[in-house]
Q: What sequence folds into this?
């Protein structure tokens, strides 16, 4: 299954955003899943999502983390859960 991951952050300059990107990339690499990662840093795009806490992690249109950086295993769990839903 193809997964769509979006990371909402005001830029990857802050520590949380850099950690979020790094952990998502690590989780994707070790999962072997087909994934498209998009970093959304434009405020006009961010306001389209129902969250005001950043950074936010969205996997297959479901917000899975807001304001904190989830563990690699947690991200992998969400990828696995979403692949069984399809």
A:
């Amino acid at each position: 299954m193809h997964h769509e991951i979006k990371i909402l952050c005001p830029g990857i300059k802050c520590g949380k955003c850099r950690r979020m990107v790094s952990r998502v990339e690590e989780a994707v690499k070790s999962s072997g899943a087909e994934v498209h990662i998009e970093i959304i840093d434009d405020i006009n795009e961010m306001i389209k999502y129902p969250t005001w806490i950043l950074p936010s992690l969205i996997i297959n249109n479901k917000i899975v983390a807001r304001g904190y950086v989830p563990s690699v295993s947690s991200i992998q769990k969400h990828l696995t859960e979403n692949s069984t839903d399809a």
User: Anything to note?
Assistant: The first strand starts at residue 2 and ends at 8. Residues 23 and 72 are 6 Å apart (CA to CA). The mean pLDDT is 88. The chain has one domain: 2-85.
